[in-house]
Amino acid sequence: MKRDPQENARRLYEIASTQGGYFTSAQAREAGYAYSQQHYHLSRGAWLRVDHGLHRLRDYPPGERDDLIRWSLWSRNQQGRPQAVVSHQTALAVYDLGDLLPARIHLTVPAGFRKEAPDGLVLHQAELQPHEVEQHEGYRITTPLRTLLDAAGSPLSQEHLDRALRQALERGLVRRRPLQEAAAASDARERLELALDAALEPGS
pTM of the full predicted structure? Predict the structure, then answer.
């Protein structure tokens, strides 16, 4: 039974609206668009081709962090599930911790991830646990605690780490004890302790 084109459009919009206007070819097919129909909509300009098998509704209003949704969908595996989690300096910026404006987007991917990072992306490999990840609209991100642990183990300056950790404590995004008890490499642990001590200093 042939589905109504308006019903197809409605189904596709429902999918895309949870992903900042983005959708995959597979999702369009699930919504009722055969590949020949997808080519038609792309050629007419109603859909914009973003990457191989990844598109966006032309008239969907832009969001604040569409870039993170786009790269989350880029990271999908053969089953169509995104693999990347926003992390490190990019996660700090999303949480508005510190005053970083990272020039590149940092993502954490599983160890078996095989796609090469294009310009503008930094990929970190780690097996994140469910409690270390939060779902935001259209993408996943490391929790504030995991984000600070990653930042402590990165080349981020101690000054920026101190500021981010202090702000996270002040805003109630993390608590001191979990930071003190979290497992971390020795150099990251030392930097965390320095940041925790700095957060106790008057006027800091």
Answer: 0.91
Does 77 share its domain with 116? yes
67: its two tokens: 């870039």
Give tens-digit pLDDT for 109-139: 999 999 999 999 999 999 999 999 999 999 9
The position carrying tokens 């999918």 is: 15
Q: Are residue 82 and residue 53 in the same domain, yes or no?
A: no
As for how many domains the chain has, the answer is 2
pLDDT of 76 reads 94
Cα–Cα distance list, 189 to 165, 180, 195, 199 (Å): 13, 8, 10, 15
Rounded distance between C-alpha atoms, residue 23 and residue 74, angstroms:
10
Residue-level pLDDT at 1: 42
| Residues 105, 123 share a domain | yes
Q: 23-55 b/e with 16+ CB inside 10 Å = b?
A: bbbebbeebbbeeeebeebbeeeebbebeebbb
| Structural domain for 36, as ranges | 5-57
Non-local CB neighbours of 48 within 8 Å, separated by 6+ positions: 42, 55, 56, 57, 58
